[in-house]
Each structure stands twice: as structure tokens, then as C-alpha cells.
Amino acid sequence: MSFSYHKSPIRLWWRRQQLYRYRRISFIWFIFVFICILIVPNPFSAEYSRIAINQDIQWNSINETLQIKEQILQNEIISDNSKVVKRGIIEEQSTSRILIVLFTTIFRDKKFCSFSIERIFGKTCPSKNRCQWSCDHEKFREADALIFHAYDIPLSRAPMPNRSETKPNSVWILWSDEPPTIINYALLKSYHFNWTISYKLNSEVSIGSYGLFSRRIHPLSDNTYQDWIEKEYYNRTNGALWFVSNCHSKKRLEIFYKLKYASNLLNEGYGRCVDYYPVHLCSSFSQCEYNYMSKFKFYLSFESNTCRDYITEKFYKAFYYGVIPIVYGPNRNDYERLAPKNSFIHIDDFHDDIDKLADYMKEIHSNLTLFSMYHQWRKNYEIIIDGKALERIRMCELCQRLSNLRKDDMIYYENIENFYNDGCR
Ligand SMILES: *[C@@H]1O[C@H](CO)[C@@H](O)[C@H](O)[C@H]1NC(C)=O
Ligand SMILES: *[C@@H]1O[C@H](CO)[C@@H](O)[C@H](O)[C@H]1NC(C)=O
Ligand SMILES: *[C@@H]1O[C@H](CO)[C@@H](O)[C@H](O)[C@H]1NC(C)=O
Ligand SMILES: *[C@@H]1O[C@H](CO)[C@@H](O)[C@H](O)[C@H]1NC(C)=O
Ligand SMILES: *[C@@H]1O[C@H](CO)[C@@H](O)[C@H](O)[C@H]1NC(C)=O
């Protein structure tokens, strides 16, 4: 009986209608929830989204940096066969325009393609009117300089040009700000690039890779500075802070835990490797990061490796937020070439004695005079971390160097892998 009841066509029809209606209702719900997600603002977004930073740099406010850089290039001793350098004597007094062709994208992005000369090289760049920029890779035959971005070379639609097809004196430039742990430079050896744009100070173009100290036009008065330093000292009641997301570097994790247990200062670390609260993962230069940073006296600017000159925004960020960086990474000397005296604390100064470092941090924490010593540089310099401003300075350095090229100058990278591996432990 019941069997035939279930098979009744009317009943089946009715069930199908129910199912259909149910599906339709759930579909409407689905659309509703989807629209809600789209239109209802995320209540935390203000905390976590990036704060716009607008800075600019005058070319002549970095004249000291330029001088240091020039000395490094002049006195460069190439002992690892990485580079071949022959300096020409005949000055070329040319005024012709220099065509720079960006052959690849920059992280899949077509960079500066439609920008004005001032936006690319900066208003204060002395040689800006001599340089032209093009993203049309088909112009490679006319180019005076060709830029290839290491990350994008394998992604490029056009194959790498042949040297014999480009101008005989064209400058082939490899742009890469990644350490050799990320990019396999061995694959790029055979191109024998002429110049590099990178974080290494013995790259032809390097200024402002991740940040820059710029001389103030008007130094801070003693009163302004004193007010500032006292406020900072008393408001920053916590010890050292660390944000970390890459857990592969074991050495720096080890130092962090030693430091944490060595001192009763609050050494707080946030990120996947040291705690489990996703809420603590502030995005870079967000309100959330600012709120944390303004409560601490120290920031652990620990690099993921010790490669020569690999000093990233972790370092410059600390200065920007008024924190003293405790650094682990390349040698002290590499930092000193970029940062003013008494601006940071280097782990190496304590010869692996983390207890001694912790004691020193405690001393600074409770002594305004000592704390102030690490901020004196602020009277004369300001810190630039705005990516756009830094890019303009770098491109100006490129244009300056291209326009000062002598007739028989010859540089090329015989072994670019050695060049990037310098100092990596
Ligand atoms: C840099 O420029 C400033 C101001 O123009 C000048 O006082 C200073 O001596 C220059 N420094 C160097 C190293 O050239
Ligand atoms: C580059 O061009 C030259 C001359 O046209 C040719 O002999 C050589 O094989 C080419 N090299 C490559 C890698 O295509
Ligand atoms: C410092 O703390 C005082 C009092 O807690 C507060 O009013 C002031 O806004 C703080 N200043 C800064 C720069 O955070
Ligand atoms: C604070 O540090 C300065 C400089 O090292 C030192 O001369 C002074 O005695 C210290 N003050 C205290 C209270 O320890
Ligand atoms: C560029 O490198 C090539 C070797 O790859 C070299 O023959 C040429 O002279 C270099 N040009 C400049 C301007 O350094």
C-alpha cells in the first residue's frame, strides 16, 4: 500500500516542487550573503589596511651617501671573479638623449610606462632631461640601456635579445633586490650583464633599495628634540617587539628566545613562528602596526640571512616608528655605511652573549640619557621609507650614472652568482 503511495505521481510532483523551492530559497540566501560580504565594510579594515605615506627626497640631501657610494665603487676589490671592471679615461661630453628600455615587467607590473620624466627620476634629479624611459621591448635595438628584472625574466613573453642585435655599447642591467635564497642567480650567469640594480652598495645602482637617511634642510632645534625625546621615552613603556612571518631562519628565532628568557623586559614577538594569534599579524605600515610600535623602545630588525648589504625595510621601519633597532644580519660595517652613528644596536657587538645584550637593553630602558643617545641623529636626518620617493632616487642614480658613462668604460658580471652570494652564511 504505502509503496504505491510513495510512487504516486502527484506525490512525486509535490516533492520535486518542495526541493525546487528549497533550492531556490537557498540560492537567494547565498546571493544575499555574498552581497553582504561585498558591501558591509570589514570593521577591522581601518586597523589593518596600509596607511598612505607621502615623502620626497631632494637629490642634494643625500650627497654624503653618494660620496660613500662613489668611494665603494672606486676602491672595489674584486677577488671573487664576480665582475670585470675597466674604467675609461676619455670623458664623453655628449648631450644626446639616453633611451632606457624596460625589457621585462617588474613583478608582473609594467613600471613607469606612462609616467612623466619628473615622476620617474624626481624633480631634483640633475640629469633627468637626458633620460627617456620606454616599456616597449621591441625598441631593444635602439636602447642605450636595457633593464631586465630577475624575477620576471622567466615570465617574459619575448625571449631575451641577442647581444649582437642590440647597440654595441648598450648597457644590459639586471634589476634584483632579492637575496640568493630566493632567486637562483646561477641561471643568469651567461648573460654577462653590465650593471646591476640591487641592495648591494657595489651594485652600480643601489641607493635607497629599502630605505634612506636624508639630511634635513633645517636641523631640529634642541628644544623640539628634547620635547620629543622625553615624550617618547615615557610613553614607550615596553621593551622589545618583533613581527615575524618567515620561520625558515632558525638562527634569528634562537636569538629571539634567548633574549626573551634572558631579560625580564617584555620581549614580545608576534607572527606565525612565535605566537598563534592571527590578529597580531598587522600588515606593513598599518594603524595596527603603528599602535604596537609606539609602545616599545626596541624593535628586533632581524634579517632572514647575513648576505652582504641585505638590510631591508625591517631596519628602516624601526627608525620610522621612533624605535631603536636591534639588528641581526650582515656585518656592523655594512650597516654603518647606510645609517648614522649611534642609531642601532648590533647583535655582533655582544659576541653571542645574549645576557649581556639584555642587560644593556635594560640599562637603556631605564636611562633617558642613554635612550636619547640613540636618537641624536634625528636632529640632522630624517628617514625615508616611501617606496615611490625611494624609486625616484634610484632611477635618478641610474640616469646620473648613464649620463656620466665614459667612452671606453667597460663593466660586466662574469659571475653574478658569486656577486650575490657575498657574505651569505
Ligand atoms: C652636502 O651638501 C651640504 C649642503 O649643500 C653641504 O653643506 C655638505 O658639505 C655636503 N657634503 C658633502 C660630503 O659633500
Ligand atoms: C647571436 O647572434 C650571433 C650572430 O648573429 C649568432 O652567431 C649567435 O649564435 C646568436 N646567439 C644566440 C644565443 O642566439
Ligand atoms: C603619550 O602618552 C600620553 C598620556 O598617556 C598621551 O596623552 C599622548 O597622546 C601620548 N603621546 C604619543 C605620541 O603617543
Ligand atoms: C645614564 O647613562 C649615562 C650615560 O651612559 C650615565 O652617565 C649616567 O650616569 C646614567 N644615569 C643613571 C641614573 O644611571
Ligand atoms: C657590456 O658587457 C659586454 C660583455 O657582456 C662587454 O663586451 C661590453 O663592453 C660591456 N659594455 C659596457 C658599456 O660596459
From TrEMBL:
Which superkingdom does the taxonomy of this entry point to?
Answer: Eukaryota
Q: Where is the Fucosyltransferase C-terminal domain?
A: 235-416
One family name in Pfam for this protein: Glyco_tran_10_N
Named in its record, the pathway it takes part in is: Protein modification; protein glycosylation
Name the InterPro entries on file: Glyco_tran_10_C, Glyco_tran_10_N, Glyco_trans_10, GT10-like_C_sf
Identify the GO cellular component terms for this protein: Golgi cisterna membrane; Golgi membrane
What topology does it adopt in the membrane? Single-pass type II membrane protein
Q: Which residues form a coiled coil?
A: none
- Spell out the family assignment given in the record's similarity comment: Belongs to the glycosyltransferase 10 family.
Please report the name of this protein according to its UniProt entry: Fucosyltransferase
